[in-house]
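Quick one:
INPUT:
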């Protein structure tokens, strides 16, 4: 008999807090215990995709690197394509690039110029929404290609960092909010 679907509370309980990683003062949210448990991992994918049915999304865009894990699984479930948004210099073909601000400096993400067709219906997924810089840069790349973001979905949101403010005009949904 199949087990009951995982709840957000069960997934949250499995997320490990790692203090002072990658630098002092940061409380890192480690999702690897969720990934290691097939029921929790499947539950996370179910929750991230619950508003959509196969055929309702053309592509799932995943953000480098942990977002790839959830986005690729979601794409399979929704029978949609998977499109990676990678760090600058990591994609082999022609790319559009988008810079964004970090706490100290900036970074750039890229997407292949032919990754999405104009009008494509997109579900944007990442594991974590913090300050929103990477997600807003990814959304800008999707918009540049003329695709439509149906939703930006995150497993975890650190609400106190106000990341969703950078995603104005884009429906945002988070499964676990701290």
């Amino acid at each position: 008999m199949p087990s009951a679907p995982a709840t957000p509370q069960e997934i949250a309980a499995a997320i490990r807090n790692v203090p002072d990683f990658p630098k002092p003062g940061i409380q890192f949210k480690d999702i690897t215990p969720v990934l290691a448990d097939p029921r929790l991992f499947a539950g996370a994918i179910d929750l991230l995709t619950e508003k959509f049915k196969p055929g309702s999304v053309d592509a799932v865009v995943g953000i480098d690197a942990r977002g790839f894990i959830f986005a690729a699984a979601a794409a399979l479930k929704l029978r949609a394509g998977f499109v990676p948004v990678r760090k600058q210099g990591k994609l082999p073909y022609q790319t559009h690039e988008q810079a964004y601000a970090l706490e100290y400096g900036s970074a750039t993400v890229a997407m292949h110029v032919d990754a999405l067709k104009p009008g494509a219906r997109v579900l944007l997924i990442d594991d974590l929404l913090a300050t929103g810089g990477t997600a807003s840069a990814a959304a800008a790349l999707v918009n540049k290609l003329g695709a439509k973001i149906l939703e930006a979905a995150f497993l975890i949101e650190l609400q106190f960092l106000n990341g969703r403010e950078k995603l104005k005009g884009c429906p945002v949904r988070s499964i676990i909010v701290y």
